[in-house]
């Protein structure tokens, strides 16, 4: 009995497999289109956010200008009330005015001073909002 050498019965094979997804239900195309739509939606959202920011800045500017006008008008009102109280004090001193009228004028002065202080702080606050929008941060 002759034995054949082992290396003669040994076979080698090489294989190659290629998978091409031709009919995958158009999943790749649908995913691509969804990605394009998402990109467009994000661009539109960015534009909308920019418009909202611009609108907020314009509103803050207008509010600051209104607050400045109120502050200036309040100063004039306070000066007028103080002048009126001064005249009322003089009239009271000579007996031409009652105590009730003098106290009413005094209350008007206090009220206008309070309103002036509120208008001043409102103006300062609105200017700080504008500084924030300018990128200067909030500094007191």
What would you note in describing this structure?
The structure is a single chain. By secondary structure, the chain is mostly helical. Helices cover about 75% and strands about 0% of the residues. It has 2 helices and no strands. The longest helix has about 70 residues, at about 25-95. The radius of gyration is 41 Å and the shape is rod-shaped. The chain starts with about 25 loop residues before the first helix and ends in a 7-residue tail after the last helix.
Task: Write a concise synopsis of the structure shown.
It contains 2 helices and no strands. By secondary structure, the protein is mostly helical.
The chain-level mean pLDDT equals: 88
User: How large is the radius of gyration?
Assistant: 41 Å
Number of domains: 1
Low-confidence blocks of residues = none
Overall number of strands: 0
Amount of beta strand: under 5%
Secondary structure class reads mainly alpha
Could you give a short account of the major beta sheet?
A: none
What global shape is seen?
rod-shaped
**Helix and strand string, N-terminal first?**
HH
Percentage of residues assigned to helices = over 70%
What is the CA–CA distance across the termini? 107 Å
Counting H and I runs of at least 4 residues, what is the number of helices? 2
Provide tags for this entry.
140 residues; mainly alpha; 2 helices; rod-shaped
């Amino acid at each position: 009995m002759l034995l054949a050498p082992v290396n003669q019965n040994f076979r080698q094979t090489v294989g190659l497999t290629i998978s091409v997804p031709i009919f995958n239900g158009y999943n790749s195309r649908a995913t691509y289109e969804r990605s394009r739509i998402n990109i467009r939606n994000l661009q539109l959202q960015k534009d909308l956010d920019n418009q909202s920011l611009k609108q907020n800045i314009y509103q803050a500017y207008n509010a600051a200008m209104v607050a400045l006008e109120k502050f200036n008008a309040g100063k004039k009102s306070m000066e007028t009330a103080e002048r009126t109280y001064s005249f009322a004090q003089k009239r009271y001193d000579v007996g031409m005015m009652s105590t009730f009228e003098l106290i009413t004028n005094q209350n008007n002065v206090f009220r206008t001073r309070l309103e002036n202080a509120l208008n001043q702080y409102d103006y300062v606050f609105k200017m700080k909002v504008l500084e924030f929008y300018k990128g200067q941060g909030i500094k007191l």
